[in-house]
Amino acid sequence: MTETFDIAVIGAGLVGTNLALALAPSRLRVALVEPRVTVQPDAAWDSRIYAISPGSAAFLGDLGAWQSVDATRIARVETMRIFGDAPAASLEFSAYEAGLSELAFIAENGRLQAALWQQVQQSDHAGHVTCYCPAACLEMTQHADATEIKLDNGITLRAKLVVGADGAQSWVRAQAGIKVNTQAYAQHGVVANFSCAAPHRDTAFQWFRTDGVLALLPLPGHRVSMVWSTDDAHAQDLLALDASTLALRVSEAAQHALGALQVITPAVAFPLSLQRVAAFVQPRLALVGDAAHNVHPLAGQGVNLGLRDARELAAVLRDCGAQNDCGDYALLRRYERARREDVLSMQLATDGLQKLFASRAVWLSRARNLGMDILAKQPLLKNLLVKHAVA
Predict the structure, then answer these.
(1) Among 44, 57, 108, 339, which one is least packed by beta carbons within 10 Å?
(2) How many whole angstroms separate alpha carbon 7 and alpha carbon 335?
(3) Which residues, 6+ apart, have CB-to-CB distance to 135 below 8 Å?
(4) Torsional class of 255: left (φ above 0), alpha (ψ -120 to 50), beta (otherwise)
């Protein structure tokens, strides 16, 4: 059986789901394909959290999802304190000084996903988005006027445009033959959640250390979420520690900024890499989110890059004027041109910082800490950086 759509979005993670919802009010017929069923989160804290920029939160709010997330599970970041690997090297970013209400929101992946899926189901019932879940893609065939995707449930989708929102190991990207350059950092991001004895006061902390980058992000109440980007061997050492020893190790690395810590979510790890793709688009195909780019998590901007992809592509497809073919290459190039600079600048910044602080060279250590001190004394430049990050 073949079913026809204007757009087939492959992957219902945060980015793909947002894109489908952003397209729902348009005249375009949208299919959303996802192999895994999204379930409601339980009371436990999710080990996978995101720093959501105010711009991304507004986008989620426009889709009806942000306000559906339990507000008691969202923390605001009003201040960010960054420390170099020299005792006196530090930098502080303040929402107040930048004229903002907050720098970011810290939210759990599971609760964001559940809120989005609730909106998708409503759109499905209203006939705006058709969901195929669970359903896995088996084969993709590109034609001049459409692309066909065979699903494992026996259905074939025929769409003018296929959007790959299926992550860093994108099946869509591979089927389309789009080349990707992957640079492994030989690092893992170790994540865990802790209760803390001292209040975090809506402050995010980050330490650039000789053994990696340690971040403690505020969660509601006396809780924080850790992301420790470190080399593979150290990551395995951290994963092998019992809960009390891990808490002590993290507290010491964080210079006891939040007092004694206690593990509330066991540590897990994921490999870190930089991915650059040869093209964001082809005729009848577009990539968004991690399928289009992957960056080091030290800036906490990966998911926001993806949400800006969804926001831009939806705008291009909704406002295409007299162009009634949403898979037209010239139309899709508008999306690629609009996103390339933002993605490239974040890739260069995060990759450069990772290499700068990973080096053990003495002269680089002095240079990076001096640079931090100079930036700390430039309020206008600091505020410009903040306003770019909150978009």
Answers:
(1) 44
(2) 15
(3) 33, 34, 35, 151, 152, 153, 155
(4) left
Q: Could you read off the pLDDT of 201-225 as tens digits, one per residue?
A: 999 999 988 889 999 999 999 999 9
Is pLDDT at 381 greater than 70 in this prediction? no
DSSP-based three-state secondary structure for 158: strand
Question: Token pair for residue 380?
Answer: 């206008």
Question: Do residues 107 and 49 touch, judged by C-beta distance below 8 A?
Answer: yes
CATH class in words for 2-62+109-182+274-354: alpha beta
Q: Do domains 2-62+109-182+274-354 and 78-107+185-273 have the same CATH topology?
A: no
Q: Are strands 293-294 and 223-231 parallel, antiparallel or unpaired?
A: unpaired
| Residue 71 exposed, middle or buried by CB count within 10 Å (0-12, 13-18, 19+) | exposed
pLDDT tens readout for residues 268-288: 999 999 999 999 999 999 999
Topology of the domain covering 78-107+185-273: D-Amino Acid Oxidase; Chain A, domain 2 (3.30.9)
Least Cα distance to 317 among 4, 24, 14 occurs for 24
**pLDDT > 90: what percent of the chain?**
76
Pairwise CA distance, residues 302 & 291, whole Å: 12
**Domain ranges across the chain:** 2-62+109-182+274-354, 78-107+185-273
Q: Encoding tokens for residue 115? A: 């809120």
